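Researcher: Go.
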Amino acid sequence: MATRDTLSPREADCSTGADYAVLALEALQEPADKAYAKELMDRVADECQFTKDLAAVSIVYKELGEQTRAEELLQTAEDYCMSGEEQVYLAEGKMKVLGDKAGASAAMDNALKETNNLDPLIELAKKAMALIGDNAVMRKVLDKAMGKATRAAEFTKLAAGAAEAGDKDYASTVFEKAGEKLSSVPDLLALAGEMTKTLGDPTRAKALYQRALDGAADFPAVVKLIDAAKQVGDSDFMKAVLKKGADLATATTELLDLGLGLISTGDKGGAKALLEKAETAVNNLDELKKLTDAVKTHFADDSTWVGRVVSKLEKRQANQAKYVELQNQEQQADTVKKLLTLADRVMAELEDPFYTAKLLGKAETMLGEGDYQFQRYRPIILAVDKHLNDKDWLARMLDEAAAKSTDFIRFKDVIHTAAAEMKNVEVGRGKARAYLKTREAELKANASATVYDYTKLAQLVISDLQDKEWGAALLNEAKAKAQDHFALAHVGQLAAQAGDAAGAQALYEQAAQKAGSAVACAQLADRLHNNGVPAATVKAVYTACGKTLSSPAEKQAWVEGIVDVLKDKAWAAQEYAAIEGSFSGADKARFDLSRMNRVGDEFYPYRKHAA
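Model: Structure:
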């Protein structure tokens, strides 16, 4: 049972307004100690500066019956609200303090604008449902999440989130959309399994298994479908899977036999495709000899192909023992890392780009069966760049990486790899520039694009492409979007990093004019100081900021910031003296106490002597 005696020792663990609010709500549980809860809130309310803390404290005041105070704090929470996460806390406050469903929905909309990754979107949808209890609001969030999903694991996670939030109809829609969008056998198999688990609908699962069978292009995929057919328990479907398996072949000897059989029927094009597949699947010297004989006999007019297989055969014959050793290691290579290490050895010891390409292709295929993560594909991209310089292969992998980089952190990694780490500068930097141009066009077409969207893009252009002119143009776009002192200071910092000292100074001065309060002035000075801006510049900006203030109370708070933020007691003493005549009565008493607490040593010289 929560009482003052049991709760008060936990005050030492509280560091934020939200922490104290949790403690206060516990105090309001039966038997309620309203006096203690109010004491806690009165102690921290005026110190809160973040939306999370302000909203939490306002909810407690609502519970205490102090509606006016609760609404005042909630309004301040809304004024301070900047991030998507804070919009969620604001939405909770609007529902619990005001019962304002429309306002809470609007806050959730704002949170949605700043939430882009799949997992956070799913969590946001759950919170929307829990707070507002409106499927329409939740579905709006999930619709955005649906647009981010590209793989089976992502769609199933989204469907599970919808079902967990109590909306199985939407979960069903997710599976239907995923079934239309996905085509690879692993994706369709994973989707079918999760559909049965989430919705308990084997009929729909069977339809997905059938799509997987129709799209199966290799024998390993068919093997997985055989297992699926056993689970479905449909004999006709099993017959269809087995027939498809008979139509596919993966072993070199099987592919050679099928290819030669197609030649006898006149289908030379189909035969070539099978023999090229057999070339990739070669496992020993005897298979390579048979393949080389078939290519020389039936495709003598293709000098490039003939030259390639003859070269492979000669190298294999001259280094048979080494190839046997490396192939044995290949059979044991069950991870991407092992395949990459083996590819390095093949190039170092045999200088065989064909075998290396096979190993790297195998590594890429291995990764393709899981969720896409660029940092796992990055070593393969760099290995293809280093050993093969295959422009088409590199371009395909980079394009796929860029397309799947739905959040900016992943996109940033792709750009850095392409622009700063690849040997093939033409492909790497060319692709990076193209992706950045596309992102820029998307931002310009998006009325909701923020100043920070542009500054993040500018940072990439400046750091990885070293294109200061383009970076400056993006910073100008950001400047046009900047509406507060924080945003202007951030753009100014980037301008300084790009070498535009004059532009940075101008932006800092604009930030000072935008601040509008002593608190904002202190925030601005603290931000500039933490960003490494020279002390003289910070002081000049803070001075300019102070000149925008008119009320004596704001000016006093501004002078307090000289000590609290800039740690300059001498300057503060001068400014205290300059504004002293503006105060009288109780205000004068508060002024004197403020001056004594902050610059007592300077204002009362005898203290120095006493010390």
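Model: The CA atoms of residues 295 and 305 lie 8 Å apart.
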